[in-house]
Amino acid sequence: MKRALVLGASGGMGYSIVKELIDRGVEVTAFARSEQKLRNLYNEQREISIQTGDIFNLQDIKDAAKDVDIIFQAANIPYPEWEDKLVPFIGNILKAAKIQKTKLVLVENIYAYGRSTGAKVTENTPKQPHTKKGKIRLHVEQLVKQSSVPTITAHFPDFYGPNAENTLMHYTLKDTVQHKKAMFVGKQTMAREFIYTPDGAKAVVNLSMHDNAYGQNYNIPANDVITGEELVQIIRELSGYDKPVRTVSKNLIRFLGIFSIDMREMVEMFYLYEEPVVLDGGKYENDIGPLPRTSYREGLQRTMEYMSGAK
Predict the structure, then answer these.
(1) pLDDT at position 310, please?
(2) CATH 3.40.50.720 given to domain 3-163+194-222+277-293
(3) What is the pLDDT of residues 36-58, one digit of tens each?
(4) Which of 182, 191, 201, 228 allows an S-S link to 20, with CB 3.0 to 4.6 Å?
(5) E strand or H helix at 238, and its extent?
(6) Closest of 45, 51, 68 to residue 8, by C-alpha
């Protein structure tokens, strides 16, 4: 791979993928809507070409994908737009990849798996989504399988990390870094997994360099599961934060949904904070090698340093 396109390069996962690629000597086209945000993030580094455009515009994606070897799709769109826009958006990426004869790596979530069975989820676990959003994600996977584009689909749990602002963990960390009253979504006694975005970026870039990985799905788990209480304790030890951390319940999200469409759309996904889906990374380790695993303490420290301006 000599040159790659990263869609959603101004977001958390896209940012980490760009960084991982240039660390490996790959030339990158960083694509997002805001030119100013891209320039703020990448400081006009020579290895990175900044390109702005509309992720819903096929021509913009085609132009950005010219002469690249691989497209990394890490762009995210708001929940309220999924029903009408997500499938056409992915369809446009597939069309652009086919026209430009590029490979594709999709950053995916775990919604298509549906409810937890109590065991770790493998790539062979039947996908039985029970939510509207899960069914849309499964439709996306089917669309990819029906295409002729060589594609890797990588499933991730919740993210946290540098520049990962559109995440639940970010809102907890943002308030603790600013020493304000903080909140944590879901039961703090429940063990869940959160993946550090630089680890996720290393994993997908590793996958992209293996020809036999294309046409397959891979689960990329976090370092381990961890409770909210354990996370908060680590944050306190690292930052000296000493205020109470309030638990955000499903009922509170439902109430906020009266005033916010984004909160309203979040209600159906709250099951993930009551009965977490935990990924099994055995297939990746068998096919590629050890998973990148940064400890929560180190990942949280680096994330908070980034948020405080020590980038």
Answers:
(1) 54
(2) yes
(3) 999 999 987 778 999 999 999 99
(4) 201
(5) helix 228-239
(6) 51
